[in-house]
Design brief:
About 40% of the residues lie in helices and about 10% in strands. The protein has 17 helices and eight strands. The strands form three sheets. The protein has a four-stranded antiparallel β-sheet with strand order 1-2-7-4, with helices on both faces. Strands 3-8 form a two-stranded parallel ribbon. It is elongated, with a radius of gyration of 24 Å. Bound molecules: cobalamin and iron/sulfur cluster (2 copies). One iron/sulfur cluster binds next to helix 6.
Length: about 400
């Protein structure tokens, strides 16, 4: 038995460090994914957030000298806010998906893994290690599955028995040899809930997805959000949790094991209107710690505008008008035009005139298109009830 004693010691140390689940996998290749990864890329089903070189994703020996084992870890995160804030009609709030609550998980897992590596180094002399979380080469979900942490659900996520899919994953490649842990059987059975619940039909059904259709991806892009996704985004301004919320394995599961993962309600359920004009400094101070701020201010502001449009929040009209007049970023102006047209219920000559003026000034092609559509929508509105009664 290769390193059985050390393996037990590592498991013990992991618990003490605050790692919720740990498993050991061989560092064999993931060749069974090769065709699928190429095919998904060729079909345009990927996002660009995946590591670019497919060979490095599936052959651990391309990124590490003599890899023997991959130690996979999972940390459970909360899925419920203890005291959620009220969502007032005249002061609407958005919400960040759960994987973006608390301190950015990359930092938390990196810290845990470096503590674990430091421990193993005390026990061995010459071993080498390469830790990674999310942004590394390896597919975290496939690695965790091989290490026996759980099974891959039809929603493509790693589902553990104890914590459901509300876990972050990371792994350490090493040249130390350990006996691998046993895999867990596929547990979805006949269930299709996530497939049926996905609002954009992004899930293919076999654990893969067309990631371009995924709302989680759409909330993280920097340009315009295609119109078909705007309504479906609702008021979740970063990520999407629908295919996890419906999963029976997640029912009743919300773990509060790591204080740094606890959500600050004012931050993860932010008021939307103030986000439209937030300064860079304020943005960094308020949202800088969240994983959901990694793409910067612009996508979140765009999403906040879309959420206000979806709420049909009349009280947001003055700020949206201000954004159209003053914001230097065309995409933000164009999205505000969309939201205004969505929010205004009735014929409003002043608003039509305003939109015409903005359109006349606009030079950005896509934004001209957005404003033209918004103008058409505004022109097609019915007169207010009162004037309809008079005529
Ligand atoms: C790019 C990316 C995204 C993209 C694309 C997601 C995707 N499914 O490909 C977007 C932005 C949409 C996204 C969204 C989310 N993500 Co993400 N994402 C990643 C990232 C960086 C790479 C994923 C990847 O490589 N996908 C491409 C390949 C590997 O996937 P695939 O083709 O579907 O192949 C899988 C299955 O088909 C299946 N499979 C197994 N055997 C076989 C055999 C055959 C023949 C076939 C066909 C398939 C198959 O296993 C394969 C490997 O997982 C990983 C981190 C990492 N480095 O791995 C995090 C990661 C997957 N994301 C994570 C999270 C939390 C999310 C969100 C929940 C965030 C949110 N709340 O919005 C959503 C969930 C969406 C979903 N249902 O998947 C976690 C998942 C944790 C968990 N419990 O599983 C990860 C692991 C990050 C982390 N380190 O914790 N993500
Ligand atoms: S995260 Fe949302 S949009 Fe993406 S696959 Fe799951 S339910 Fe569909
Ligand atoms: S909702 Fe059902 S099909 Fe989807 S991952 Fe969960 S158990 Fe599997």
């Amino acid at each position: 038995m290769a390193n059985a004693v050390l393996k037990e010691k590592i498991k013990q140390a992991a618990t003490e460090i605050g790692i919720d689940k740990i498993g050991f996998a061989t560092a064999d290749d993931f060749a069974h994914l090769e065709d699928s990864l190429h095919e998904q890329k060729a079909q345009g089903h990927t996002t660009g957030f995946e590591h670019k070189v497919i060979e490095e994703r599936i052959y651990p020996d391309k990124i590490f000298n003599k890899p023997k084992t991959i130690i996979s870890i999972a940390l459970a995160y909360p899925s419920e806010i203890e005291k959620p804030l009220p969502n007032e009609r005249d002061d609407r709030r958005g919400v960040f998906a759960r994987a973006s609550w608390g301190v950015d998980y990359h930092h938390i897992l990196e810290d845990k893994m470096s503590q674990l590596i430091a421990y193993i180094k005390e026990e061995t002399t010459t071993a080498t290690f390469k830790p990674m979380v999310d942004t590394g080469e390896l597919p975290d979900v496939a690695t965790a599955e091989r290490a026996g942490l759980g099974f891959i659900g039809r929603n493509g996520l790693l589902i553990t028995e104890e914590f459901g899919s509300w876990v972050y994953l990371g792994e350490i490649i090493t040249d130390l040899e350990f006996d691998p842990d046993e895999r867990v059987d596929f547990g979805c059975g006949d269930c299709m809930r996530c497939i049926d619940a996905c609002p954009t039909d992004a899930l293919i059904g076999d654990g893969r997805m067309d990631a371009n259709l995924c709302l989680s991806y759409q909330t993280q892009t920097k340009g315009y959000m295609p119109e078909e996704f705007r309504r479906k985004m609702g008021h979740v301004i970063y990520g999407c949790d629908i295919c996890q919320l419906v999963c029976p394995y997640n029912r009743g599961k919300s773990f509060h094991l790591h204080p740094e993962m606890e959500p600050e309600p004012e931050v993860v359920q932010p008021k939307l209107k103030p986000m439209l004009t937030i300064s860079n400094k304020e943005f960094k101070n308020t949202f800088g710690e969240l994983a959901g701020s990694w793409r910067g201010k612009k996508p979140l502001q765009r999403n906040a505008i879309i959420a206000l449009g979806n709420y049909r929040d009349q009280t947001a009209l003055p700020q949206l008008i201000e954004v159209m007049e003053t914001d230097p970023r065309p995409m933000i102006r164009g999205t505000a035009a969309w939201a205004i047209a969505k929010i205004e219920r009735y014929q409003n000559d002043a608003l039509v005139e305003f939109m015409e003026e903005q359109l006349a000034k606009e030079t950005d092609e896509e934004t001209v298109e957005e404003m033209t559509k918004a103008l058409e929508t505004l022109r097609a509105k019915r007169p207010p009830r009162e004037s309809r009664r008079k005529s």
